[in-house]
Amino acid sequence: SDLVTALEEIRRLAQRVNTLLQRPDVDGVVFVQGTNVLEETAYFLTLTVKSTKPVVVTGAQRPFTALSSDAPPNLYDAFRVAAHADTHGKGVVVVANGEINAARDVTKTNTYHVHTFRTRGLGMLGYADADRVVYYRAPLQRHTIRSEFDAEKPLPRVEILSIYAGSHAGMADAACKLGAKGLVIAGIGAGAIGNLTYECAAIAAESRAVVVRSARVGEGRVLADSAYQEKNMI
């Protein structure tokens, strides 16, 4: 399917980046793609690239055919950031609109405006300004060489299930029947999973799939000791 192909392509991309970064004549990598799933590519790379060398992902909100395209400055800034000594060891970063964000934290927040890639709550890492590149903080969560993930073998299929008022029970079972080995539940509020509670609890208990409880809110942690947590869920 197209989905499987896309997931395999991003895995092969990570392998290619790892191969390039092993070369002594390569000091860093800049990867350019469309912005719709740019944050997903960057996040996957920051978990699977095994190097401290800079990896920068960028894209553009306005194409070359549009007035005042942001493609040239974003690409130029991406290379400036990749060449900067302070980018070493910070994992994969996303550079757009003169801002540097950590791949783990950044998300697309606007459909068409150029100020779209932001890190809600935690804030950006720094700026790629006209005079210089400057960093103000570094990501502390595990990434790259400290990450337990790798791209050397195919990954099991994982489905994301979004919870909403009146969400249909049976979605989790349906995903498992389609071959999902993992379920990420994008819960409401602090991670409540509504009508899927008992269904997902049974799936987790029976080890039919790994069930990870998350939240669709966009900021804040999901607590393991909350009222919404069921046994065997992550």
What does this molecule look like?
- Strand 5 and strand 6 form a beta hairpin.
- The chain is globular.
- The strands form 3 sheets. A 6-stranded mixed sheet has the order 1-2-3-4-7-8, sandwiched between helices. Strands 9-10-11 form a 3-stranded parallel sheet, covered by helices on one side.
- Helix 1 crosses helix 2 (38-48).
- The protein contains 5 helices and 11 strands.
- The longest helix is centred in the N-terminal third of the chain and has 20 residues, at 2-21.
- 25% of the residues lie in helices and 19% in strands.
- The chain has helices at residues 2-21, 38-48, 71-82, 171-177, 197-205, and strands spanning 29-32, 55-58, 92-96, 99-102, 107-108, 117-118, 126-128, 133-135, 158-162, 182-187, 210-215.
- It starts with a helix and ends in a 19-residue tail after the last strand.
- The chain has 234 residues and is of the alpha/beta class.
